[in-house]
Amino acid sequence: MKLFFTFLTCMTFIFYGSAQVKSDENEFARQLESYFQLTGQRILVLEKDLSGLNSAEGLVLKNLPSALTENTDYAFFTFREKYVVIYPKFLRDKYYDRADSLEKHTEKAIYEVKGRIRDNEMKTFIPGGLFSIPQLELAALTDEKGEFSVQVPEGTYIGYFSSMGKQTEQKIIKVYRDQELDVTLFESVSELDLVTVTDRAIDANVMSTLPGATRIPMEELKLLPPLLGEVDVVKSMLLLPGVSTVGEGASGFNVRGGGVDQNLILMDGAPVFNPSHMFGFFSIFNQDAINDATLYKGDIPAQYGGRLSSVLDIKTQSGDTEDWYLNGGIGFLSSRLGINGPITDKTQIMATVRAAYPTWILRRIPNTGINESATNFQDANLRLDHRINDRNSLLISAYTSSDYFRFGADTAYSWQTNLASLKWKAYWGDFFGSETNLSYSSYRYSVFGEASPLEFKLRSSIDFLGIQQQFEWSGEKLEGLQFGFQVNSYQMGMGDLIPNSEESLIEPVAIQDERGIESAVYFQVPWKLSDKLQGQLGLRYSRFFALGERQVYEYEEGVPMELESIRDTTFYQSGELIKSYGGFEPRLTVRYAISEDFSVKGSINRSLQYLHLLTNNFASAPVDLWKLSDGFIGPQEAWQYALGFYKNMNQNKIETSVEVYYKDMPSIVEYLDGAQLFLNPTLETDLVMGSGYAYGSEFLIKKNSGKINGWVSYTFSRTLRKVETQLGDAVNQGEYFPANWDQPHDITVVASWQPVRRISFNATFNYRTGRPITLPSGIYDIGGNIVIDYQERNQARIPDYHRLDMGMTYYFYQRKNSNYKSSISLSFYNLYARRNAFSWFFQPSPEQGIPKSYRLAVIGTVVPSLTYNFSIR
Q1: Distance from first CA to last CA of the chain, Å, rounded?
Q2: Are the C-beta atoms of 434 and 471 separated by less than 8 Å?
């Protein structure tokens, strides 16, 4: 009977969660909700069975289940003290009749019925789905591959296929031989008034073992205000505690005191070196192509490596297995179009294209420097999913983009990103599987000088090729064990300058490329001492090899490295080892559940990073330079310690958390004052290894359900750095100084309100401390030349930053089974037109020669956007 009741529980839960509450059922809905608030138990019932129950009006709340079913054709039982299941009595009677019949006919043959359950909405297989035959009191749950297998006596039966948040399917099954079934479940189309169905446990923030990990499905991201007309994954991450940026127009983001280069960003397993379009105003992730995004900012699983601060893992959508459909959007600044559907019963495709065209707006701004500017971008996603057989599948993902930006009539910028990945998933038995991932990533940028006679082209590039092989064990013992290896190859084009016309006076310069190989082996295993105390243990060993072909200078010992101190040169052939680094990277997480809604989590994490983003600006830009570790510049290193307290209230409707962290960085890359980072053949003379640390606390309170929901977060953080050597090249007199992205206070408020079904409002507000800047410590007149002296780095700050964005979405009316859905979104970026300072710089006064300070605001006005979104099946 336990299997029978389990079947009823799963089946009726999703139907109750999808029951539409009509106007004449408001009293019934209020009674069910009040009963839940009083007892903590959900009453689960099929929508079609509501008419067979007693009226809820006037019933005693405490005895509501008995009162609803008294003298009716329905019964109820309590399951795990959390659910009250109301079901038709005839199901129970049929079971007993069938059991008597089976006792008299014991010689029937037994056959295997196996199959898999698919998810039409997520385009994946459903783990934990339920297959059952009520007549036999027989049920089975699907495994992590969405598969099930049961032994069934010969005969004709009605089989039920169900899963949380999906419509239950019924099929007649004639069992006279072995059967193989393939069933697709569709999302419930009824309105969710009483229960919100999600793809994760409602107490996952408390009971999961990974602190600082946040997974956001695309459907949840779409509830946030669209920035410049689009839902943006990267901009949405900035609303989370511990994640920030130095300002508008900056590429990338900062996590817990780390630089933008310390975040590993992946799209279907391929690394992204520049996640931005238009200098950070858009991200490269098209909302129509993305399925979900997961940010790891505390403990980083052992399968990821090569970055110190965080991992942002983006997964694209797979193609629909049943129907073709179009979707997209048309806006003032950008437009999108996507297609999705099955090529065959085993192959699906998803493709999107997007383009932005804000130049027509720039041309209408009454400012000569701006209305002569131009900018645009285009990008495209493609994904193919192919099921070879029940145990093997392939995924091919590709992305390409192109950006162009010209400021005024003198200088233009262009950059391109290309990504590709091939994944092969295989299952070698009931409990053992593997995933092979081949990935490619390239990034190229160019700067064009268009002022005669100094026409030039400055260009640089990154080429990445990697393979990752991962194995996973899902047996009862050591369930969740993962192990594998990675090998990554890098070729970094460090820049070359070429004249762009025959009349140009520019002399060509070419900087030699850098090459390297990064490899790693790792394992990770969950551990559990009790239901309360469990966690995850991981260990990663990485190794980096700096390789030729390359010419390496040797410098005199005991003096600062300068061009004049070069004493010899060594030439390394292609593939010859120049220098190698490596080390162990342990990861440990612990979770102790004090109660069902309160837990404490802790983590320790060591990471090594062999790539470095070089910029002596306060913010990264698409034209910044990436460099590999070599014989002069070693890897960056960080130890992070985190402790968090997580408490849910009001039946998990309200989440609260407090996290504190400390990050020790004994090895980081810094630059000397006045460093030349571009077209520098002796780049090592302007770079130096330093140390640093960061610490902070993050507070979050989040409301998950109801017509009004959202969150409020506050982050206090500091990140300090220090450069002190014995050769006279110290920075800031060898004292600690704030990093360029050190912003101690950060407050974020996110709210959404849906007063009626077809209209929703949303808003975000952000306040943060102004970033550090370096101000002159002295001004000298030497022979009529004005010299500005900068001694203390980052000891002042620009004004504090704050901004309010608001948006509204209207969903046009459509019939329940309509193939066309549409909505229109109106948003206002920087609603009260705050002129937030982006930079503070100094230029000599033409009259006096004495430098004057200037403050630059990138967006100093409100930016409205209007987008029409649609989908056609």
Answers
A1: 42
A2: yes
What are 522's two structure tokens? 């790792």
Residue 349: partners with Cβ closer than 8 Å, 6 or more residues away: 319, 339, 340, 341, 342, 343, 382, 383, 384, 385
Q: What is the pLDDT of residues 442-491, one digit of tens each?
A: 999 998 888 888 888 998 999 999 999 999 998 777 888 999 999 999 99
Nearest to 668 by CA among 734, 733, 735, 720: 720
Angstrom distances, CA of residue 22 to CA of 25, 81, 84, 168, 839:
5, 28, 22, 22, 56
Residue 67, classified by CB atoms within 10 Å of its CB into exposed (0-12), middle (13-18) or buried (19+), is middle
Q: State the Cα–Cα distance between residues 198 and 208, nearest whole angstrom.
A: 15
CA 441 – CA 780 distance, rounded (Å): 48
Alpha carbons 630 and 626: distance in angstroms, whole number: 13
Scanning the structure block, which residue is given the tokens 């169905």?
Answer: 197
Q: Is the dihedral of CA 618, 621, 623, 629 positive or negative?
A: positive
Which amino acid appears at position 336 of this protein?
R
The verdict on whether omega for the bond into residue 453 sits within 30 degrees of 0, i.e. cis, is: yes
Find, among 313, 314, 383, the residue nearest to 348 by Cα: 383
Contact 321, 344 (CB under 8 A): no
Residue 630 in tokens: 């070599």
Residue among 622, 566, 554, 544 nearest 251 (CA):
622
pLDDT score of 124: 74
Distance, in Å, from the CA atom of 723 to the CA atom of 68, rounded to the nearest integer, reads 74
Enumerate the domain spans of the chain: 2-185, 204-311, 312-872
The fold adopted by the segment(s) 312-872 is Maltoporin; Chain A (2.40.170)
CA gap 577, 550 in Å, rounded = 10
**Tell me, what DSSP letter sits at residue 363?**
T
| Range 2-185 has CATH code 2.60.40.3760 | no
Q: Could you tell me which of 249, 207, 241 has the C-alpha nearest to residue 310?
A: 241
Tens of pLDDT, residues 214-261: 877 777 777 676 777 788 888 888 888 999 888 776 778 899 999 889
* pLDDT of 36: 75
Residue 185, helix vs strand vs coil: strand
Cα torsion angle, 752, 753, 758, 759, sign: negative
Q: CATH number of the domain at 204-311, please?
A: 2.170.130.10
Dist. CA 271–CA 378, nearest whole Å:
19
- Burial class of residue 176 in the structure, from the number of CB atoms within 10 Å of its CB (0-12 exposed, 13-18 middle, 19+ buried): exposed
* CB distance 327 to 338 below 8 Å: yes
CA distance 832 to 804: 7
User: Residue 545: is its pLDDT beyond 90?
Assistant: yes
Beta bridge partners of 464: 441, 490
Number of CB atoms found within 10 A of residue 193's CB: 17
Structure tokens at 669: 């890359």
Q: SS3 for 288-332, per residue?
A: CCEEEEEEECCCCCCCCCCCCCEEEEEEECCCCCCCCEEEEEEEC
Question: For residue 711, what are the contacts with CB-CB under 8 A and spacing of at least 6?
Answer: 655, 700, 701, 702, 703, 748, 749, 750
> d(Cα 458, Cα 507) in Å, to the nearest integer?
12
Q: Which helix (H) or strand (E) holds 796?
A: strand 796-797
Hunting for tokens 């958390």 — which residue is that?
657
- Going from the C-alpha of 160 to that of each of 10, 150, 315, the distances in angstroms are 11, 13, 31
Q: From 738, 740, 717, 739, select the one nearest 839 (Cα to Cα).
A: 740
Residues 295/312, Cβ–Cβ less than 8 Å: yes
pLDDT at residue 306 greater than cutoff 90: yes
C-alpha to C-alpha distance for 29 and 433, rounded to whole angstroms: 45
Q: How many beta carbons lie within 10 A of that of residue 322, not counting itself?
A: 15
Judge contact between 146 and 114, C-beta under 8 A: no
